[in-house]
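Work Package 3 (structural annotation) set out to generate three-dimensional models for the target panel prioritized at the project kickoff. During this period the team completed the workflow that converts sequence records into discrete structure tokens, so that structures can be stored uniformly alongside our sequence database. As a representative example, we reproduce one entry of 280 residues exactly as it appears in the project archive.
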Amino acid sequence: MRQFYLVSIIMGGMVPGIGTTAPFGGTASGSTVVVQTVTALFLFFVAFVLNGLLRITLDRLVQRKFVTADSVFVRYPLLQAVLWGVVLTLVFFYILPLHWEIGLGLVLVIGLGVGFASKQMFQNVLSGLIILMEQTFQAGDSIQFQDISGKVIRVGLHSTRLQTGEALTVSIPNSRLLQYPIYHRTLKGDPKTTAVLTTVFPPPAVDLETYQQIAYEAALTSRYVDSTEPVHVYVGYSSSGSASLQVTIRAAVINSLHVLAFQTDVLRRIQLALMANPTG
């Protein structure tokens, strides 16, 4: 139907006697339709240019730290909707010879499409408000989310940023944070003291009690451990379903950024102890 209507507009400018109806009555001539069509295309071009300039401007504001990336993620779609809403209103109601019922229908369809496209954004914003109001975690807390662990450096409306032990910054959408369990690693109210679980697998030829003692001493003597917190060593079977034994070391590090360094140091100390006494 839309294609037929466009053909009728074009034919109105080519075949004598064929005209088009203006938005609120009357008939538009062929030359008028050509001017209206060119004007509409020019407005769409201007809208694309303005949209690109808007994106570039917001990116530069983020780089210069005038605004945050989370605020841009929320505001950019809204500014886009306003820009295209103004352009479509001008085109459908005042430039192209469309009846106001057709123009209104097109605006509603486009509005629904924008709404579905922005569904994830609104979910993240709502989740961010829930996290901020319930104070599920705050900046400075050490948390573990699925296979990601680190220190919370910012809780935004759209996403939460973590700094991992590898000094990497990870942004997690807030909607995901409410779908899976979150484990707090912060101890005794100190945002720097973080609980760490390190899993090691003892060789079959080594006595289990001796290996436990080696693992305990390796964690206790590490330079990254918080000596004011106790060190615990647990023995159990692997969660992968195999019958292999595993040893889990629970300790606290003096800084959440030292988690990976602590685990590496503990494994190195265990290997050195086993090399010095292979039979245990």
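Residues 1-26 have pLDDT under 50 and may be disordered.
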